[in-house]
Amino acid sequence: MQNGPAVRRRKLGAELRMLRTGAGLTSGEAARLVGWHQSKVSRIETGASGVKPADLGLLLDAYGVRDGHLRELLLMLAGAEDAGGRHRWWHAYRGVLPPTYRDFISLESQASAMRTLETTVVPGLLQTAEYARAVTRAAVKDLDEDRLDTLVEVRLARQDVLRSDPPLVLSAVLDEAVLRREVGGPEVMARQLERLMEAARLPQVRLQVLPFAAGAHVGLTGPFVIFSFPSTSDLDVVVLDQLTSSLYLERKEDLMAYTEAFDTLQFHALSPEESLDYIAGIGDGA
Q1: Predicted confidence (pLDDT) at residue 43 exceeds the cutoff of 70
Q2: Beta bridge mates, 227
Q3: What is the residue-wise DSSP string for the chain?
Q4: How many Cα atoms are found within 13 Å in the side-chain-facing hemisphere of 251?
Q5: Distance between CA atoms of 266 and 269, rounded to whole angstroms?
Q6: DSSP tag of 128
Q7: DSSP characters for 3-38?
Q8: Mean predicted confidence (pLDDT) in 87-98
Q9: pTM of the full predicted structure?
Q10: Higher-confidence residue: 53 or 132?
Q11: CA angle 70, 74, 80 (to 5 degrees)
Q12: What is the mean pLDDT of residues 244-268?
């Protein structure tokens, strides 16, 4: 388990090592091609140090990497922006957001797909402003109105990933408790349920409800997120949210375990069509 930056450095380094060996180069030969000392290449490949986007571009050129999507992903892992700068918009909130939250947003903005189990609250990408305000106020102690407004603003800005081109593909399994918990009062909750139904109809969103009738399930240990990235599954990562920090799991065994758990949850959950009807029924007071 590592923090987000360490995960990205390690994954970037592992990918660069594979690209180098695929190009038939030793670390020393690669270093000579770009005018570096061999130790710099080694530190980057082990994740001991990061690499500037410009330096990464030199390595990718030396390794003959022409795949535009792969280059963009690796450059994002190195901290580069895309042409519109959208991947680093959260840096404007550096003084407000804790590092773990900024790092989660960074992964979310770079991912091509996200699978999430939620057992307590609606996923942030699907929250209304009113619901987000109520959740944030409850979760963060001694919050003044200005900071609360900013955190809600950030929550809503994150939702742009569902409208980007291409959009993030979101698969969410919601425990029925998420829908029954009255956050912000009945009116706020009613609008939140409507928002969920709107989102569930989007082609990039797959929303399923795990009803109480399903009984005990593998997700009882807590919520989790699986981020997947374009071009390679080697960069996938599981995120477990804690009260004061986030844990990042990237070993193949962990990824396999959580992927199997999510598949099981989807199997036992209602279908997307049934889930829509279920949410509508809760909204009608069923």
Answers
A1: yes
A2: 114, 237
A3: -B-HHHHHHHHHHHHHHHHHHHTT--HHHHHHHHT--HHHHHHHHHTSS---HHHHHHHHHHTT---HHHHHHHHHHTT---TT-GGGGGGGGTTTS-HHHHHHHHHHHH-SEEEEEESSS--GGG--HHHHHHHHHHHSTT--HHHHHHHHHHHHHHGGGGTSSSPPEEEEEEEHHHHHS--S-HHHHHHHHHHHHHHHTSTTEEEEEE-GGG-S-GGGG--EEEEE-SS-GGG-EEEEE-SS-EEEE-SHHHHHHHHHHHHHHHHHSPPHHHHHHHHHHHHTT-
A4: 6
A5: 5
A6: -
A7: -HHHHHHHHHHHHHHHHHHHTT--HHHHHHHHT--H
A8: 78
A9: 0.81
A10: 132
A11: 125
A12: 88
Name the token pair of 171. 């698969």
Of residues 193 and 91, more confidently modeled: 193
- Between 171 and 98, the more confident residue is 171
Q: Please list the residues that pair with 247 across neighbouring strands.
A: 240
The predicted pLDDT at position 286 comes to 59
Q: Tell how strand 237-241 and strand 169-175 pair up.
A: unpaired
The tens digit of pLDDT for each residue in 213-248 reads 999 888 888 899 999 987 665 678 899 876 556 788
pLDDT band at 81 (very low <50, low <70, confident <90, very high): low
3-state secondary structure of 166: coil
DSSP string, 243-273: SS-EEEE-SHHHHHHHHHHHHHHHHHSPPHH
